[in-house]
Specification:
By secondary structure, the chain is mostly helical. The protein has two domains: about 190 residues, Growth Hormone, Chain: A; about 200 residues, Up-down Bundle (Growth Hormone, Chain: A), CATH 1.20.1250. Helix 2 packs parallel to helix 9, helix 8 crosses helix 19 and helix 16 packs antiparallel against helix 17. The chain starts with a helix and ends in an 8-residue tail after the last helix.
Length: about 425
């Protein structure tokens, strides 16, 4: 059986994992410090929340206008430029007394680039790792992301308290810059996979439409987009839910921390103990495990059982390990970067919209009832995954057809751009 040690022997993956983890820690520190600064300046909770979430929605525009770049430019160059852009923007936020609208506009502008260099990163991982090694690599990346977010949140509080908001952002900028240097020195300068040229925005738009028209790819995208979005919407209500139930101060933090703890445990169990053939079969069951515990929030349950329920919710996120290999195999070889960028964009957009929708619903309904409704929506998405993903006997034919499309893209300007 493939092990995590075998995955970490791959030098390309080690660099991508390390730099991505460092970048997430730095980005979390930047967002929290900026949100605190905006709140201290304006006294507006709405503007502080906007500062924290402003990086989500612009990614949709970035994928639509520039997504094809992920396959047209050498991946190392794209990733380095992405990290440097984040470092430069963070330095400006820390050193220049911009108005609040200027800070938000700067963060939103940098977010336009996220689908491009995230697509390049994920495409490189898909090229570097094969078979079950790829699935375990994605598992390691998921766990590292969860740990990095926890470390970033914890470190942000300490850094802001010790250094102040602006100096804490300079520390975040240093993290982004180190990630850029590490990428430049540690990654091979592999060529771009697509030789197609022409209008970038038009090619990006056509490429995204081609991906979404493919029924298999569209279904796999929706399976990866919807359940996390519903759960993110539920998480966004934990603070008002805990307050409304009269729980002790700090309980909301414990409830929020339970989900990433469960995510780490679920990834470890599913990646190491579940056979590859069973991971796809477990997808609807694990999605149901994400949704079912949320129903308990509609009843007057004590907070400790609710925290345990959220650990189960987090463990259900391991369903993605049963989807990722099928998704990679369904993609055209010449358009993987754009496809992974579209995947990231959909995740970020959905996770940006659902908390807002959940907040609006919570204006009319109790927060616990809304969390329960989001759990029910997650259960419905599990039903959508129940018929199976790509049947294994069909996946080889789909992959060969996708590779043929990718080879064609290198010769003539087809929609994959």
């Amino acid at each position: 059986m493939t092990t995590y040690t075998a995955v970490l022997r791959n030098g390309t993956f080690r660099v991508l994992l390390g730099t991505r983890t460092l970048n997430i820690i730095a980005g979390t520190l930047r967002l929290i410090a900026l949100s605190l600064l905006v709140y201290a300046t304006t006294g507006s909770p709405a503007l502080a929340a906007l500062a924290y979430g402003i990086g989500f929605l612009p990614q949709l525009l970035g994928a639509g206008l520039f997504g094809a770049l992920a396959d047209r430019v050498r991946p190392r160059r794209l990733i380095v430029l992405g990290y440097l852009a984040e470092a430069g923007a963070t330095v400006l936020l820390a050193a220049v007394p911009l108005p609040v609208w200027g800070c938000l506009a700067l963060v939103a502008t940098v977010a336009l680039l996220t689908p491009i260099f995230a697509g390049a990163q994920n495409s490189l991982i898909a090229e570097a790792l094969a078979g079950d090694t790829y699935v375990l690599g994605r598992s390691l990346a998921n766990m590292a992301s969860s740990l990095a977010q926890l470390a970033g949140m914890a470190g942000a509080g300490l850094a802001v308290a010790a250094l102040g908001g602006r100096r804490a952002m300079l520390l975040a900028a240093l993290g982004h810059a180190v990630a850029a240097a590490w990428t430049r020195l540690g990654l091979a300068n592999t060529p771009a996979v697509s030789r197609v040229r022409g209008g970038l925005a038009a090619a990006s738009w056509r490429g995204n439409l081609e991906l979404l028209r493919d029924r298999t790819i569209r279904r796999l995208l929706l399976i990866q987009w919807l359940p996390p979005a519903f759960i993110t919407g539920a998480e966004a209500l934990m603070v008002p839910y805990a307050a409304g139930r009269g729980f002790p101060i700090g309980v909301a933090g414990w409830l929020l921390a339970a989900v990433p703890v469960g995510m780490i445990a679920g990834d470890l169990v599913v990646a190491r103990l579940v056979r590859p053939a069973w991971r796809e079969r477990l997808v609807p069951i694990l999605i149901a495990l994400m949704g079912l515990p949320c129903l308990a929030f509609a009843a007057p349950v004590p907070w400790l059982p609710l925290a345990a329920a959220l650990v189960v919710v987090g463990a259900g996120f391991a369903y993605s390990l049963g989807v990722q290999e099928a998704f990679r195999d369904a993609l055209p070889a010449g358009g993987r970067g754009q496809a992974f960028g579209l995947l990231t964009t959909g995740l970020m957009t959905a996770q940006g919209l659902l908390p807002a929708l959940a907040g609006l619903l919570a204006e009319a309904l109790p927060a616990g009832a809304v969390i329960g409704l989001l759990g029910a929506a997650t259960l419905l998405s599990a039903l959508g995954a129940a018929p199976g993903l790509v049947r294994r006997q069909d996946r080889g034919e789909h992959r060969r057809a996708a590779e043929d499309r990718g080879r064609d893209d290198r010769v003539r300007p087809l929609p994959m751009g």
